[in-house]
Fold each of these.
Amino acid sequence: MATPRMAPCKYRTGKLLGKGTYAIVREAIHIATEDRFACKIINKKLIEGREYLVRNEIAVLKRISSQHTNIVSLRDYFETPNNLYLCFDLCTGGELFDRICSKGSYYESEAAALVRTIFTAIAHIHAANIVHRDLKPENLLFRTEEEDADIMIADFGLSRIIEEGKLDQLTEICGTLGYMSPEVYQGGPQGKPVDVWAMGVVTYFLLAGYTPFEGENSEAEKQAIIKGVFSFTPEEYWVNVSETARDFVRACLTIDPALRPTAEQALQHQWLATPTPYFVQDS
Ligand code: ADP
Ligand code: MG
């Protein structure tokens, strides 16, 4: 990948794909080849003083792009006086968030297949000493509109490269409220286990259609997270969910990060290690 350069106008922009905190994401069509990408357009003014966040995102993406089928790769980047442009593989299938919302929840076997795939990508990222820090259904995208499309990890905007031998050096409070782990809220040392916790929340969400730590307000939610207080209720949402799946969620939502399974260990859990169809509920 070349160093950043001024926009060569080799793309034309297409429809809006999504909006984030500092960026909008639009389809970008490469004029010469007609190849389509997703272009994250970041307004330099909006990130003034925090440009390092985007530099960091680019550094992480350079380290892991084109290495794993289930990680959205950076294909090009350039800048104009006002904006930074990051061009990614285009995922036309939308966010996992929208699929959960339209389905209500996932059958257990489908949920296990998705979670297994996401964990293989997380294990890859973690092996490269990268922590994502913002795993949630809005940042998990489907490559195509097909029902069985590949799921991809996107948005490395909050991710960090952890130096070898200096694990758990991160202490800032960042992420998305309902997905942040107890150690993040407490400003304690944090590292790869924060991604496993977030996947515990994602898995719960996939199975039930709602998240585990919903409180009256964000303070109540934070307290529930710090104490690890959640349950598989209301019952009617959990009747068809196996004890193995619940055990998997419990393991990912272990309060002490040192006792939480690693991504590799999560993949060894019976729920993910046995790709047998679990009980499928009647519709
Ligand atoms: P932010 O860091 O501001 O959250 P994201 O990288 O998450 O930005 O992008 C915001 C939204 O844009 C995503 O939630 C998704 O809906 C959409 N998006 C991001 N990357 C892609 C992509 N490669 N293909 C399709 N849509 C994308
Ligand atoms: Mg995002």
Amino acid sequence: MAKTDLSKDVAGILASLGVPTACLSGGTLKARSPIDGSVIGMLKTISPIETTVAIDKAHAAFLEWRLVPAPKRGELIRLLGEELRTHKDALGRLVSIEAGKITSEGLGEVQEMIDICDFAVGLSRQLYGLTIATERSEHRMMETWHPLGVTGIISAFNFPVAVWCWNAALAIVCGNSTVWKPSEKTPMTAIATQAIFDKALKRYNEAGGAAPANLSTLLIGDRAIGEVLVDHPKVPLVSATGSTAMGRAVGPRLAGRFARAILELGGNNAAIVAPTADLDLTLRGVAFAAMGTAGQRCTSLRRLFVHDSVYDALVPRLIKAYGSVTVGNPLETGTLVGPLIDKGAFDGMQKALAAAKAAGGTVHGGARMNESDGGDAYYVRPAIVEMPSQSGPVKEETFAPILYVIRYSDFNDALALNNDVPQGLSSSIFTNDLREAEAFVSDRGSDCGIANVNIGPSGAEIGGAFGGEKETGGGRESGSDAWKAYMRRATNTVNFGRSLPLAQGVKFDV
Ligand code: NAD
């Protein structure tokens, strides 16, 4: 893979955002690029004690911010959206450099941030509560929604900036402050994002706004810092995105202190290809969902159930596409599949392929393509594995481009296979049979948080609520009414009469 000086590129991007160069060196956290494995910065990390102090300050910011009317809070997020538009190219490139996404996906991730800002601005005038019929005369019952407190955000490497924005844009219009612990694998993009937020905040206050300092706080550190966030009593909500293993650690700790959790964990997403599927459309849908982002999306397609009648028409074409897809430097035009994030991801992929073989699978692809470089970058040919059954590693999420293909002959069997894994994030069916399509999205259909027809399982838009069931954690973020998780609901009953009728006819005259 061609060598470029990525650290200079990164320094230039951060300088253009006003980040002092001194921030990029002298620390102990090694920031690296999966493009060539080079070190792009040595970052200072925060200590657990400093983290506690930072959270206390974020709480003080919350106490002020909750008093600002919601539409005025929305103005700050409108300005954030403007700043993101201005710096889209710079931040998108940084996402490509630090997370290894191809250029259009790096830019797409920033576009997702812009989209959620637009959504949140509108939402800032729509934090509606109900007025509810009451059984008592001269009473009114209503529900009101109030800011909740400090919102903790823990994010994964593969969506290094969009996940922050899904949470922060909503949390801030809802009247909360935010404290963000990004992945230790992608700290540079977090620093850039915080600088962009600071620009919006400065403009907001210069225009007469009253946004407090520490409204958005960034914590650079490893999981131990995440643990401080999870345990801090002044953080009533933590939205944590990452592996199911992380969720298993974080969920009970939050429950132990009765804090709220939005858990967005691993997926093991499937698609069914039915006899009536449009195979050209299916091929493109499957290729993007399974190989896009080098299989490192939580919604990446990992299991494909193909009906006997179309197996031979589809699968050889897919194998051919896997063999010819352009893998390489994600910054270069024409590349469709970039690198794996690190050696750990490569080793995990090889282990899963070996297990699949042992379980009777036929593996096509999967080898490292830049072995001879001797460097710390990991480019692989995406793997497609024909499996005799849903067994071995097929039931696990391997965060790499492996697609397991299994034949089926009965629709209900395919549906059962779709649901027969511990995870429940995303799913899809390719069919032109109305009955199958409707059954798939019905009560007896897919048990996932996302169920699509004639598109793959990945690439969600921000307008819908995002998240999944079972070991995916049950959380919902982004659109629809996901905002409710970031607020506290109060039911208010107001007596505007002169008597005191009790509900359910209870008498209590003293
Ligand atoms: P990871 O679990 O290794 O790390 C995610 C984040 O959690 C990091 O910031 C890490 O420091 C922190 N963390 C880990 N253990 C912690 C603990 N005990 N307490 C507090 N914080 C802790 O995940 P990753 O490798 O960065 O990302 C890949 C995983 O994330 C995949 O499983 C993928 O499916 C999942 N993911 C899910 C979604 C979703 O919306 N469902 C989105 C993106 C990624």
Amino acid sequence: EAGRLADRLNVSLYVVGGCVRDLLLGIENLDLDLVVEGDGILFARKLAEAKQARVKAHDRFGTAIVLLPDGFKLDVATARTEYYEYPTALPTVEQSSIKKDLYRRDFTINALAVRLNAKGFGEVLDFYGGQRDLHDKIVRVLHGLSFVEDPTRVFRAIRFAVRFGFRLGRDTEALIEGAVKMNLFHRLSGHRLLEELKLLLAERDAMQAVKRMADFGLLRFIHPKLGWSSRLQAGLRAAEQALGWYRLLYLDREIAGWLVYVVALLEVLPERAVADVLKRFPFTQAEAAVIRAARLNGQAIVRQLSRRPPPKPAQVYRLLCGLSDETLLGLMARSKAEAIMRAISAFLTTYQHVKPLLTGADLKAMGLKPGPQFKQILDRLLDARLNGEVHTELDERDLAAR
Ligand code: CTP
């Protein structure tokens, strides 16, 4: 359909990038990146019209996002070569334009395109050996300046290698080593570095991703004191286990898994260094709160939870309520003790959902005077219910009246 629109507008249309890569690998990918040889924004507008979709255009970059009513998202870009200089009808020129666009990209496996126009529909454009590298399982840059142009590509290289179980091309590896030696990453803003780090740590095998970063000496760009150690490895492994456990239980709940790994990474750093990291990277307040809570209160909470005799459910509840799931998993990963596992698990699955049967309205109906003591009474009722000291509503009424 988009192809037919492109034909009518007399432009060439291609689907490019990660989507083609994943298609050839047989992996699902719902992000569609389109490149137009011609006016990409005009094409996006016409497509949106036909589809009753919304468009957000960036005129300066010749790009647009088309938001289809069913939630599907298309990125449309203009092939970056002067279009009006050439008669677009000439296929050779069309090709050279998409070819140049693809040459600007990061890796051969991401520099493949599939043609969508009626003429040549479905044809794979592979100027740089992307299909061969997909077959040989290699992440390879297109040219020697790739990492200089964009140092975040170093992290992308590791991300794709870890995700697909690919290795890095030998030249590509050497270029990464060069980029590390030249300290190209100090030029990156905290924002961009954090974005890349998040994506890396969101990979299924985040631990392997960190290991690869360490192999290249990249951890020191998070903090100079951060390096690979058996302690770090154990912490990451524990984070992985805690997350695996959580995902088995809470399939319907979203968790920022990457943040649990960040907690594990920072665990091995001294206090001052953690403060540096919090300053350098623009974590949201909520994210910073998770890092601080796991770090500062972590030890005290773990100590309380592993006390003998073990704390009662209400005490566990009071210790853990208000902490995010990420913090809880951070605590779990930090201690690994059976008692902690059990307490956090009981809190997540049960305690946090418990409520007293009586409400404030009930207390009022009982003739009690509203005020700050209401909260105290309700807290007392909740504690009693958690500890199994009250069972019926009558029990609660008795307790409330006391
Ligand atoms: N790209 C690039 N250099 C970058 C970022 C992106 O060349 N620093 C190009 C690549 O061709 C990539 C495409 O832009 O395929 C889209 O980028 P992005 O959506 O970030 O990557 P995907 O390949 O789609 O990866 P993912 O599956 O992780 O979304």
